[in-house]
Amino acid sequence: MAKRTHIEEVEMPFLDHLEELRWRLIKSFTAVLVLTIISFYFSGYILDALLYTVKNLQYDIHLQVLKVQSVFIIKLEIALIFGIVLALPIIFYQIYAFVAPGLLKSERKYVWPVILFATLSFIGGAAFAYFLIVPLALDFFLSLAPPSVTNNIALDFFFGFVARLVLVFGVVFELPVISLFLTKIGLLSPQFLKKYRRHAIVIMFIAAAVLTPPDPTTQIMLAIPLLALYEATIWISYFFYKKNE
User: Do both 87 and 147 map to the same domain?
Assistant: First the structure.
């Protein structure tokens, strides 16, 4: 009987955590859904803003719609992406609220700066890709076509190409935020980051070669921010590692 009582005492907190996680996920999903619906209303304006990139290219590009439902699907994708991006502060807060019981009172005062930092980091990475990397990548690929060939690109393929680059850079720019979180929970230290700096540099240049066109200039323009973010990650980890000690 004592054994059964012990099991119930262990299981109930675990079930409470699952229930708490379920409600945090529901709130995050609801925020994404509501903001996605709102974003769909403005998806036409957002699409026009995304197409502004092609006006400043060195090479001509002609976008075309090959399927009846292409524009509608693109607007749905735009609405979903912007719904997730706009809901990031809410999602980050729900993550914080779930792990808050395990944090000290002195650590909880950093929640809003961290949420703001994470949101601005994603937006900064996305903006960097949209205004700098996307035009360079498009010009490179379009320059490969012979003079006798017209660059007719399907609108959905064009949007997919731009969206992938923007999202990848947005996620990459979250590296300092991840460093802060892992350092606070004790899974990362500045000594570890310094020890494997050379390995990280190699991985970053490989990632830059994979994520960008086979153009040395574009690869370097991605690798340099990655290296700067890695160094910033070391300093952030060092600062919070000292505070943990």
Answer: yes
Same domain, 115 and 190: no
d(CA 67, CA 238): 53
Query: Which residues constitute the domain of residue 44?
Result: 2-172
Same domain, 156 and 206: no
What is the three-state SS of 100-159?
HHHCCHHHHCCHHHHHHHHHHHHHHHHHHHHHHHHHHHHHHHHHCCCCCCCCEEEHHHHH
pTM of structure: 0.72
Same domain membership, residue 233 and residue 178: yes
Regarding whether 109 and 55 lie in a shared domain, the answer is yes
Helix (H, G, I), strand (E, B) or coil at 43: helix
Q: Which residue has the tokens 């190699």?
A: 202
Q: H or E element: which one contains 64? A: strand 62-64
Closest by Cα among 171, 169, 168, 187 to 179: 187
Number of domains present in the structure of the chain: 2
- Note down pLDDT in tens along the chain; length 245 residues: 444 444 343 444 666 777 888 888 999 999 999 999 999 999 989 888 888 777 778 888 888 888 888 899 999 999 999 999 899 888 888 887 777 776 666 666 667 777 788 888 888 888 888 888 888 878 877 887 888 888 888 888 888 888 888 887 888 888 887 777 777 666 677 788 777 778 777 877 777 777 665 556 667 777 777 788 788 788 877 776 665 55
Q: How distant is the alpha carbon of residue 172 from its chain centre?
A: 6
Encode burial over 189-217: b for 16+ CB neighbours within 10 A, e otherwise: ebeebeeeeeebeeebbebbbebbbebee
